[in-house]
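Help needed: design a sequence for this.
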């Protein structure tokens, strides 16, 4: 008889820092931050379990989305600042950010936990389905300020579906 799998737990600020530092190979400072809301037009990563039920969301504001993309793909800061000023991430930024939030799924997985994977990444300003928009306002969440060395800071919120 196997034990029933449990839903993933909310990652800590340290979990986020460790994941990002391991990914980028550079210092990342993570501290409590302001909540990211859909009014901020963030990138929204949606994670699902094997039954395709939503397990978690990761809301990344435009600034942090640019910095995370730049840190992963070693993009020049000037182009990232241009994207921020224009209020949108370019396709190459979204591709790199997709990789970051895909790897972030590792924070929702572990022994005895129902497996979660990235289902989709909604670009900043893209229409969000109603059920995802409703979940984005849930209370089982952590709101963080993230500062990526050599790039800059922004905010992210992780929201659990349970």
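Sure. Designed sequence:
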């Amino acid at each position: 008889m196997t034990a029933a799998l449990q839903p993933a737990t909310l990652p800590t600020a340290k979990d986020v820092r460790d994941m990002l530092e391991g990914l980028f190979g550079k210092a990342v400072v993570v501290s409590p931050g302001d909540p990211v809301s859909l009014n901020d037009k963030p990138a929204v990563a949606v994670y699902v379990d094997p039954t395709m039920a939503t397990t978690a969301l990761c809301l990344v504001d435009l600034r942090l989305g640019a910095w995370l993309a730049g840190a992963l793909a070693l993009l020049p800061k000037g182009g990232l600042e241009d994207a921020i000023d224009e209020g949108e991430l370019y396709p190459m930024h979204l591709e790199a950010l997709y990789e970051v939030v895909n790897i972030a799924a590792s924070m929702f997985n572990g022994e005895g936990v129902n497996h979660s994977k990235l289902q989709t990444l909604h670009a900043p300003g893209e229409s969000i389905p109603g059920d995802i928009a409703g979940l984005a306002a849930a209370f089982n969440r952590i709101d963080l300020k993230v500062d990526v060395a050599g790039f800059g800071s922004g905010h992210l919120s992780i929201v659990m579906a349970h």
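The mean pLDDT is 94.
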